[in-house]
Amino acid sequence: MSHVDDLRLPHAVSVPIPLRWSDMDAFGHVNNTAFLRFFEDARFSAFPAAGVEVGGQVSTRAMLAVRHEVEYRSPLIYGRHRLTIDIWATRLGTSSVDVAYQAVAQHDDEADVAAVARSRMVLVDVTSGRPQPMTEEERAQFTPHLGEQVRFRGW
Asked: Would you kindly state where each structural domain of the chain is located, as residue ranges?
């Protein structure tokens, strides 16, 4: 365990995520499938709050997930831990952005990284489904949140 402040990343946006009893599985910890929902909730909360608004509900363009990779590091226990997702961008492509996540499980002042993950998001035209280049303004909104790639442990 580490002190919670030792796990914070300067370029990341931190999003508290409430845990639900239904996130648990038969083994008494939060099920691995719940993490993708946590990461999605963090994306929708973090980037608009940080000034990054690409696409949107009534837009003709949308950011779609095309890949996720998750590494689980320690159990997350409902009723014991508070969860914060740290989220940041690691790469900007022409029409895509790679997003990294660090799921921090906190109990009092102590914390562990429960999982790390990365996603590739692609900006598409919702009518055609074709990738669309990000504008310079859209790209500039991600810049303050660019950081290093997630470091996965070896296989």
From this structure: 2-145
- pTM here is 0.87
CA angle 153-33-96, nearest 5°? Answer: 70
Give the model confidence (pLDDT) of 40-89 as tens digits: 999 988 876 555 555 555 578 888 899 999 999 999 998 889 999 999 99
CATH code for the domain defined by 2-145: 3.10.129.10
Q: What's the confidence (pLDDT) of residue 2? A: 56
DSSP string, 14-54: EEEE---GGGB-TTSSB-TTHHHHHHHHHHHHHHHHTT---
**Closest residue by Cα to residue 124 from 55, 61, 59:** 61
Are the CB atoms for 32 and 70 separated by under 8 Å? yes
Q: Provide the 3-class DSSP secondary structure of residue 76.
A: coil
